[in-house]
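Comment thread on ticket #2218

A.B. wrote:
> Attaching the input chain for the structure job we discussed in standup.
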Amino acid sequence: MANETFGSPMLGRIWTKTIRDHRRGLLWWSVALVATAFMYAGFYPSIRENTEVLTDYIETLPEFLKNTFLSESGDFTSPAGYLNTELFSFFAPLLLLIYAIGAGARATAGEEERRTLDILLATPTPRRRAVLEKFGALVIGTALLAAALWVSIAALGPPFELTPDLTNLAAAVVSCVLLAVSMGALALAVGASTGRRTLAAGVTGGVAALSYVLDVLAPSVESLRWLQTVSVFHYYAGNEPLTNGLDPLHVLVLVGVSAALLVAALVGFERRDLAA
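C.D. wrote:
> Ran it. Output below, let me know if you need it in another format.
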């Protein structure tokens, strides 16, 4: 019976069960993203109607503030510029990061703290497979939320004349997923190596915050500009996907970071004595 339940048919069971267990959370996260898209779409007409005034005001800002709050192009009033500045520069990645970091921290460390890890591993399922399927659930959950965001903007934007290029919008959403998954993989690696969910979430949140600060502040100091290249946020938004589409190099960097951290999670989980 154990083999029928947890043996070869187990393929996909861990990630599908994880998604099923989190379905209510995913639903509410999706509702929040739809509401966010509606809110920003509703504000856009007032931005569009005051383009000249806003453009003149932006020109008076110090270069530091332009770099901090605007894209390199300084565009704010076009659909792409507005979404890039108001939504994709901070709020959209923040929401997906919170979800992905939480999912990564819970993946194994949460099971361990709840004393349910022994149930998960009391089957022929190898440890590495459990980690891989937990990571798969993290990726799928993050992608589902990103898809909800794309659909929301595509559907709710046109009535307010917020009509970005949908292909570039998809590029921005994909880039957001890659960023969130990379930090989710870090949370998974810390949690798998230590068994401490809070530590995993805290360390990863700190790394994400530091990465954001480096991406924002480093360009303002010539001698520190190189630090921007160690920030995952630079590879998330440096190419301005809403305007220019995905940068293959940036995609490879974010995928490579996630892959390296997944390997670290696999190694850490395999080598550790578990508090099951």
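A.B. wrote:
> Thanks. Noting for the ticket: The CA atoms of residues 18 and 32 lie 21 Å apart.
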